[in-house]
Amino acid sequence: MKLPGHSAVVTGGASGLGAATAESLSGEGVKVAIWDMNAEKGEALAEKIGGVFCEANVADEASVESALSKSLGAIGGPRILVNCAGIGVAEKTVGKNGPHNLANFKRVIDVNLVGTFNCIRLVAAEMEKLDPLADGERGVVINTASVAAFDGQIGQAAYSASKGGVVGMTLPIARDLMNIGVRCNTIAPGLFHTPMMAGLDQKVQDALAAMVPFPKRLGRPEEYASLALEICRNTMINGAVIRLDGAIRMQPR
User: What is the dihedral of CA 117, 108, 72, 28, to 10 degrees?
Assistant: First the structure.
C-alpha cells in the first residue's frame, strides 16, 4: 500500500507507541484519527498533526461506534487500523492478599483483547466498503501484543493472557478478512520507553535495558512506528506476529 492520501485510525494514539505511529503516518501523508481516553493529550496531538481526536473506550461497543462515525466524517474511510490501546496490572494468581482480583483480570482482558477485536470488527466492516487498491487490498490491521504473550513474568497472568489472545486471533482474523482484501498482523514489542516505563525509577529502567541482548537499551516508540509503516507498505506481510524486542526472552521476574 502506498501511504499518501489514505486515512488511518490509531487507538491509544495519544501517547507512547500509538502517538509515535500517528505522527509517523501523518508524516507520510496519511490522515489520522486518534482514539484515546485522554482528551487533553489526544486533542493536542491531533491538532499538531492535522488529524482528528475521538474519545473512545475500545472495550465499549457504543463508544467505538461513535468514534468511528466521527472519524468517517472527518477523514473518510480508514485503510489502516493500528491497535495500541492497552492496560496492565501486576498481580499474582495467589499473593499475600489472597487470590487474584477477578475484576482486575476481566478488565485487562476486556480492554486489551476484547477491545482490540471490537475495533477490528467495526473498522474492517468500513474497509470492506472501500474500492480495492493493487492486489485487491482494501486495508490493513496492525495489533499490539507483547513479548509477555510468550514469556510472561510473575504477576503477569492477566496481561499475558490478554496479549496471548491477540497473538492467537491474528491468523484467523487474517483468514476471515482475506476475501475482502484486508490484512491482519501483530507486533509484539519487548521493553520500550513508553509512559508506563517512564513512571519507573531510572535505576529500574536501566536494569531492564541491560536485560536486552542487543541493542542494550529500551526500544524507542519510533522504532515500533517504523515497523508499523513497513507492514502497511508491504502487502505480503499478512497473518504474521513479529517480535520487536532486541532478542530478549523475559525471565520469571
Answer: -90
